[in-house]
Each structure stands twice: as structure tokens, then as C-alpha cells.
Amino acid sequence: MKLLEHFKTFMENHVNLNSTRISLLEDSIEAVKSAVRASSWDARVLMFRPQGSWAHETIIKPLPCDEFDADLIAFVAPKEGWEAKDYVNKLVAALDANSRYSGKVRRYSHCATIEYASERRIDIAPCVRDRLYPGQYDVCNRVSNEFEASEPIAYTQWVVDKNAIAGGNDLKKVTRLLKYMRDIKGNFTCPSFLFTTLLGDQISESDRGSAGFSDLPTTLKTLVGRLDDWLQARPNVPDVRNPVLLSEIQSAVWTETQYSSFRDKINLYRGWIDDAYDEKDRDESIGKWQRVFGDDFAAGEARESARVSESVVRKAGLVAVAGPWRDLVDMVKAVGATALPDRLMRLPYMRRPMWRQASTPLTVKVKAELRGGSYNGSMHQIASLEPLQKGYAAQFTAVNGFGAQFPPDYTVKWRVTNTDEDAYKAGQLRGEFYGSDHGASRTEYLKYRGVHLVEAFLVRKRDNRLAGKSDPFFVVIE
């Protein structure tokens, strides 16, 4: 499902840089411009222009404890007698002499950077215009002391043009979404400028007004699918060139290992995005989008799980002999598995499997036994849906179809999902994957009234493939 309302909220609340930070950034930029113009830097400033994510409107909210940055280009006239390193070194010295920025200025290969107490950074990069001929732009590499050809204005216009073809600012939004995904997952490397080029390259003039770009999730699906197809056809680092300066190979920042990881992850996430988009069930689709973007996507939907009993009892409209059923626990005790709602097996906050499927699945079953509250001593075997009392513990063990445990070349992961009001109020809905405590077993305390789920996922160690999954074991706690 597209879940357009959730994409809108997710972008506003978690992905986009918030208005307060944008205002701070804009105020800081104006102050920096004034400081540069009034400084002892003896280069004649022709104009300033935003560059990078700020100029392309793909800047995103940083992760907690991280900073966000903005790139500012200072276009200057050539200075007689200056080498490439002088433009950067003298800019750093001039800004550091300003009491407002003293101690906050850092020097990098192509820019002076002002750091604002780990909150934000502004990179000021000198760009010399018309150095050898009219219309020439050169950035300055102080490390190699070389002028390097650049086309910052033309590249920004290229991004604007590609975004206009996609429509709805959706190229920029997709770029933000994928940068957010990159940051929260932390398992692949792709600088923002390279991501921007790779995505923009997937758009052509014939896409203008096409159904593949009708809204944000559709554009996301289209672009990631095209990017994956392009990457899978190139097993080694390809030449990804700056579309307005073909001599610049942007993909040179990748090692073969980094590219291979990026290629593999885009292929994996392409499958997840397609799965979430094509899913017809709302709860399942939310869970699958959360697999892509994390728990903050449609986070409010988890609250619905606390009303499982309320909605089921109300829908049943039935009355037990002793009076109305209070919740799902009472209904299960009275009528068994027929009381279970379908959505109990696909609650939105349940983590969806992260592993690729093995080609031949194995049978996985869960057996359980009741134990004392200190985990000491087995009391008796318990069955799924058997009512249990609080204060005890249960040990769950994954076995094959013959009741035997799996060999050591497999590992068992457990998805433990709580439901209903007690767990919700305690902040213990869970739904995540956990390791085994011992061998292929995991022990859980029985704490919260409700009908809960325990599932075993069998993962093959040599290739990290999902070799099998059990049916849910329903734990009914009175």
C-alpha cells in the first residue's frame, strides 16, 4: 500500500530538516557572508551560492547527537600571485581572526568549516571564476595545491531539471528518504552527491507525467527499481560521471568493497520496498515499510495493538454465560483459536524478517515447557493457547518436523510480540527479534495479561539465509 498520509507525516516529523534548524542555518549563513566580506581575506568576492544538499533541497534531519552541515560557495575573482592553497588557507586565517568564529574554524582540503557546538557546520569553499578563460570555474585543493574544474551552478540546475520531470518535488524527497535510510541502517556508503547523481540518472524526459512518478512512494519504487537494475548489470565499480562535467568521476570515492556492499543493499531494499508497496493488507504493509525505514514510520499505528481485545470483543457482539467477555483472553478461554483475529499475526509493530529466503525451506516447530519464576526446574509441557498464570516462565525450543533440534550450522532467532493493554502501558509491546539463551531455546517471563506470540526463525549461518519459520506459538496469560 502507498500509505500516503504516513509518508507525509514521516517526512515532516523525521526526515526533513525542521524549520527551526533551517532558520538557524539561514541566519548563520548570512552572518558568515558578512564576516567574509568584512574580513582581511584579500580575494574579491563576486557572489555566494548554496551548494550540495542545501542547494538541492535534499538536506535531512541528522541522527541524534549528529550534526547537519551546509555548503556555501564563495565565487571569487582570480588573485594575482595566489596559488590554489592560498584561497583556502587565507580564508581560514581571516575567519579565525574574527572573534565570533575564533576557535570554531577548521581547515579541510577544499574549504574552511565553521563548527557550531556540534549542532551544525558550514563549509565555505572558494571557487575561482574566469581564471584562464571566461566561464571557467575552479575549486581549490589546498592539499595538492591544484585548481580543479567544477560546475556547481550547472549541476544544481541539472538536479532542478530532473526534479521537475519527476514532478511533485519527488526526486528530492526520494533522495532524502534514501539518505535517511542510509544513516539509520549504517551498512552502506554513498555520499550525498553520488546518491543524487545516481538517482537523477534514472530519470529521462520521457518520464514527464508518467504513472511511475505519480506520487512519492511510487516514485521511490520506480527509482530504486531502476537503480537496482543498473547496479546489478555492473558487478564492479562503474564510472559515474558528473552529468555536467564529464571529466569528474564521482564514483571514484568508492572502493570495490564499498560498491559491492552498496549494490547488495540496494538490491535487498528494492525487494523490501516492492513488498511493502504491493502489500494489500494495511497492517502488514505498515510493518513492511517499517522494515525499510524503521519504527518511526507510522509509529502511531502501534497504539492500535492495545485495542486488540476491545475491537475483537466489540465485533463479536457476544455474551458469555457468566457475563460479557472482558478481553481476548476470556474469548480464547471460552472458544479457543476461533477467537483470534487475523490481524494478530501481522500487527504493524512486529519486525518483518530481514533475511533473504533460502531456496528450500525447512520445517520449524516450537515446543514449550512451564518453569518456575527463577527459571529453575521444568514443571510440564505447555501447548499453544493454554491459559497460564503470571509469575512463571516458559522455555521455548525450536525443533524440526521430527522433534529434534537443528545442527550447529543454523542459529535460531525469536520474534516475541506482546499485545493488549497491560503490555502497552508497561511499554513492552516488543515485536523484535532476539537470540536464543541456550542452543535453540529461549526463556521468557510471563508478566502481562494478554494473548502473545512467540515465533522461531531458523537462519543458516554460512549465508545468513532464512531457512525456515515456525507458526506462532500463542502464549495466553491470565
Q: How would you characterize this protein structure?
A:
With 478 residues, this protein is an alpha+beta fold. The chain folds into three domains: 10-150, Beta Polymerase, domain 2; 155-278, no CATH class; 298-477, Sandwich (Immunoglobulin-like). The protein is 35% helix and 23% strand. It is built from 13 helices and 20 strands. It has helices spanning 4-15, 19-38, 52-56, 84-96, 152-166, 170-185, 192-200, 216-232, 256-278, 282-293, 308-316, 328-335, 420-425; strands at residues 45-51, 68-76, 105-107, 112-116, 120-129, 137-141, 146-149, 241-242, 245-249, 356-357, 365-371, 378-382, 387-388, 393-399, 410-417, 430-434, 441-445, 450-460, 465-469, 473-477. Strands 1, 2, 3, 4, 5, 6 and 7 form a seven-stranded mixed β-sheet that branches. Strands 10, 13, 15, 16, 18, 19 and 20 form a seven-stranded mixed β-sheet that branches. The chain has a four-stranded antiparallel β-sheet with strand order 12-11-14-17, with no helix packed on it. β8 (241-242) and β9 form a beta hairpin. The two termini are 36 Å apart. The model is unreliable at 318-323 (pLDDT under 50).
Question: Which homologous superfamily in CATH is the superfamily of the largest domain?
Answer: Immunoglobulins
Please name the CATH architecture of the largest domain: Sandwich
Query: pLDDT average, as an integer?
Result: 93
- Characterize the largest beta sheet: strand count, sense, and whether it forms a barrel: 7 strands, mixed
Helix content: 25-40%
Q: How large, in whole angstroms, is the Cα Rg? A: 28 Å
Main structural class: alpha+beta
Task: Give the number of domains.
Answer: 3
Q: Please report the distance between the alpha carbons of the first and last residues.
A: 36 Å
Based on Cα principal axes, name the global outline: elongated
Runs in which pLDDT lies below 50 for 5 or more consecutive residues are: 318-323
**CATH fold description of the largest domain:** Immunoglobulin-like
Number of helices: 13
Number of strands: 20
The level 1 CATH classification of the largest domain is Mainly Beta
